[in-house]
Amino acid sequence: MPASPPPPPAEPFRTPRLDLLPLRVADAEEMAEVLGDPALHVFIGGAPSGAEALRARYERLVAGSPDPGETWWNWVVRQRDDARAVGTVQATVTEGGRLAEVAWVIGTPWQGRGIASEAARGLVAHLRTRDVRTVVAHIHPEHHASAAVAAAAGLSATEETQDGEVRWRS
Asked: In the sheet that 13-14 helps form, which strands lie side by side, from edge to edge?
């Protein structure tokens, strides 16, 4: 039986104010600063990673999932006006490309400006162009800002929970 073709790489896409560019290992140093606020980990746990740890993580992400039935797409969110990185969005695509579990993180200094909502809406729209039918996010029940982002991206809260987080679905 011939091996299945490798999954397609993440492709860049745009929103009105943002450029979402495929993650590169070279982004680690800049992203360590963007994601360096411990407040970003209140709902997701853990602590900020330094540039070296992010570089190692990004090497794994860029290499792709070891599971042939799973594709990892990761993007750096950049403001178009100054090309500055402000966060990330990601999608783990399974079920033959029909289901994507998504997440977003925007650095603290850029929160409250609609960037997360714009990036998440753009991500869902981009995934639809790749024939993804169902989009899912897992959000801590007390993380109201992230719930608002999910709603803005067209997801709705379900009654399902996983690891204490509410499952949102399009």
From this structure: 13-14, 18-22, 71-79, 85-94, 99-106, 134-139, 165-169, 156-162
